[in-house]
Amino acid sequence: MATVNQGQTARHAMPAQDPAVRAHNFNEVALGYTHEMAVEEALRCIQCRRPLCITGCPVQVRIPEFIKALREGDMWQSVAYLKDHNSLPAICGRVCPQETQCEQQCVLGRRGEPVAIGRLERFVADWERQQGIRIPEVAPSNGKRVAIVGSGPAGLTAAGDLAKKGYQVDMLEALHAAGGVLIYGIPEFRLPKSVVAAEIDYVKQLGVNIRQNIVIGKLYTMDELLQEYDAIFLGTGAGLPIMMNIPGENLNGVYSANEFLTRVNLMKAFDFPNWDTPVRVGERVAVVGAGNVAMDAARCSLRLGAREVHIVYRRSRDEVPARAEEVEHAEEEGVIFDFLTNPVAVLGNEQGTVAGLRCIRMALGEPDESGRRRPVPEEGSEFELAMDTVIMALGTRPNPLVFTEALGLQRSRQGTVVADHTTGRTTQERVWAGGDIVTGAATVISAMGAGRVAANDIDAYLSGGCASPWAPEEN
Amino acid sequence: MYRILSKATLTPVTTEYVIEAPEIARKAQAGQFVIVRVTEHGERIPLTIADNDIEAGTITIVAQEIGATTQRMKQLSPGDSLASFTGPLGRPSEMENYGNVVLVGGGLGIAAIHPICRSLRAAGNHVIAIIGARTGELLFWEERMRAVTDELIVVTDDGSYGRKALTTIPLKELCEEREIARVWGVGPAIMMKFVALTTKPYGVKTIVSLNSVMVDGTGMCGACRVSVGGRTFFACVDGPEFDAHQVDWDLLFSRQRYYLEEEKRALELFQKEQIKSGQEDAR
Ligand SMILES: Cc1cc2nc3c(=O)[nH]c(=O)nc-3n(C[C@H](O)[C@H](O)[C@H](O)COP(=O)(O)OP(=O)(O)OC[C@H]3O[C@@H](n4cnc5c(N)ncnc54)[C@H](O)[C@@H]3O)c2cc1C
Ligand SMILES: Cc1cc2nc3c(=O)[nH]c(=O)nc-3n(C[C@H](O)[C@H](O)[C@H](O)COP(=O)(O)OP(=O)(O)OC[C@H]3O[C@@H](n4cnc5c(N)ncnc54)[C@H](O)[C@@H]3O)c2cc1C
Ligand code: SF4
Ligand code: SF4
Ligand code: FES
Hints:
- The complex is a heterodimer.
- Helices cover 34% and strands 16% of the residues of chain A.
- Chain A is of the alpha/beta class.
- Among the domains of chain B are: 88 residues, Elongation Factor Tu (Ef-tu), domain 3 (Beta Barrel); 110 residues, 3-Layer(aba) Sandwich (Rossmann fold).
- Chain B is globular, with a radius of gyration of 19 Å.
- In chain B, α2 packs parallel to α9 and α5 packs parallel to α6.
- In chain B, the strands form four sheets. In chain B, strands 11-10-9-8-12-13-16 form a seven-stranded mixed β-sheet, sandwiched between helices. In chain B, strands 1-2-6-5 form a four-stranded antiparallel β-sheet. Chain B has a three-stranded antiparallel β-sheet with strand order 4-3-7.
- Classes of the chains: A alpha/beta, B alpha/beta.
- Chains A and B meet through β5 and α14 of A and α1, β7, α8 and α9 of B.
- The structure holds flavin-adenine dinucleotide (2 copies), iron/sulfur cluster (2 copies) and FE2/S2 (inorganic) cluster.
- The site of FE2/S2 (inorganic) cluster has 12 residues of chain B, from loops.
């Protein structure tokens, strides 16, 4: 075996669509490894006795083991190792911020480039999907009913795990399509909807009953669900857009990133008028913020015909929270980054439509609570950018709609639900929660992990009789 | 699911649909709406719940055919299903025994005030409704409105039916002559603005149902932003009913018009499809 070279060869680049071409289509940007590339990359892993990579993964995927099985050609075994801890590998392989998680910890990263764990994960998961997903055996029905509220990664994982254990699971989703942010937020060119559809199909085949167009807090309250079900898992995410509260923010042409991305991805406005929902993108677009959501909005804008797209961000490049790959891809596609720049007002024309953005330059001051240097405005540095469209991507908070009349649920000041991270239990008996609704906007893998933790605890609670009192530490 | 049980042409431009939706029927309250998707490729549009029948498990909606989605809906027949039907959304109207209340329904607004009148009456109010349209041909539900009101005033702009007047004329008279505790105005935005202007001098609390452009209807997008009393609200979850005297009407008008060009394109495409399928049928 080529063990001598392990760790020394260069990391395999990801084949991708040419930036000049892809900036005008919605097809997937990263094309995926071929089997040969995957094996070559897998061979770089030195199979550490104490694999640090695992410590960087929020759900402790068995990284060396799935990689070893992959390079030995035992693909189903590789799939099994991968799925032991991660129920959504085709998605996480594509969207995890690997550079701050598993790959950041990989020992090879100390002297060279880390193993491309995410790309290998994607490869194995895509291989599995091509074979036709095998539906595992489902335990016989135990007659207990669980309601899963919200169909994002947290809900999908909890639903799948519980169905496998023999629970009768109803998944209740407010929108007309299941998948949460995976379907309405993250665009096709980064996460093809066929990949998400396969995951949804999988939980359906496990027997989960997905009911769309059911808004909890409106059609049913939490209390009503508690009468109907033995347990409830809340995975409603953080879907409420935060706006800046600056003058001009209600002008036509100012979108929240949620509205913009929902129109484009869920409602397929990029294919208007074949799909009925319109979206308007002018020649010049400013996206405020620099997270994944901002990158997605900026890159969608380019694909919808904008000539010039700016990311306007009040901090500097070092603080950009988006995945490194998205920032790189955005830059390659021609997105312009205006760092240390903060909008103070949106300017409009006589028709009440956006004409520009008034900004102020920022400088980095002392570190704030988050440890990042706080941006402070530089007096007298205001300037204007001519703009036709402004997209606010400043983050999101949990949507309070689900809490209508749910008085037993304690919430934080940020609007998130208080839940135990080791069990998912909330302050209301028989109600569990996980994902963005608990953490605030976070990641797909952490939501998936929270769904799994809660599913295990729901099973322990419902099958263990009184062995597991609701809040042991509370007094 | 969401089967159309019956369909009735109310006027040349408005159609009433009775939809099978037992869960929503049980929950619906006056002032709330549903979000409808007619086809898989369709837009999500808000329509007010005009009636609900818990026993039959149905919701009644009335739609005015003004664009592609509402016209496409008109093509459906009883037995067909809508692609989706989500609700009840929005806050219910505030119900109390206020005393004398006046509800103004302009055109389509007639359907929207119907359940509010019924609930207000059940709460013990003396309910006066003013219903109006441009011309007699566009009026509907007169008998149905009579059944849920104590007094009904019918007006048309051109006098072709009922009294010749704008809805605001009898409203002003009522404010002059009687002790009015609360007014509701539902209809085209411009009519609601004039209702607000009419009641303002009398200091009568006035409620309007703001029809801003919506997408999800659950508070996650902000498309429906309105400004009331200098603050921004999401009409779908904070409303749709707001204090008429505090609404920034110009903002509402301007935001309603943002997609006019695209709407025109969608309508033209729909009409072309219609002509094409008509020609094919003829063959
Ligand atoms: C544009 C965008 C890009 C992102 N990119 C990345 C990325 O690259 N990598 C990454 O790891 N993370 C990314 N994230 C974050 C990630 O998508 C989220 O952290 C994750 O989806 C959270 O999962 P969840 O299951 O908690 O909730 P969500 O995915 O938000 O799903 C919640 C679901 O609940 C439904 N719901 C809400 N309220 C109700 C109600 N009252 N009744 C019924 N249903 C309800 C919603 O409609 C939704 O379908 C991105 C997020 C966005 C918005
Ligand atoms: C809370 C609420 C309740 C409503 N109740 C009713 C009702 O009971 N009956 C009825 O006929 N109409 C009602 N409307 C208006 C209805 O939603 C629009 O007439 C409909 O969306 C038009 O769609 P279209 O494709 O046929 O026309 P389009 O040509 O697309 O649009 C015509 C006009 O309708 C408005 N509109 C378009 N899209 C939307 C949208 N997604 N959301 C809101 N408004 C839009 C715009 O002002 C636009 O200029 C209500 C609106 C709201 C907000
Ligand atoms: S789930 Fe994400 S963090 Fe964990 S190994 Fe896979 S790519 Fe890395
Ligand atoms: S740390 Fe890197 S080299 Fe070591 S096992 Fe993990 S992936 Fe392989
Ligand atoms: S319609 Fe999206 S927030 Fe109101």
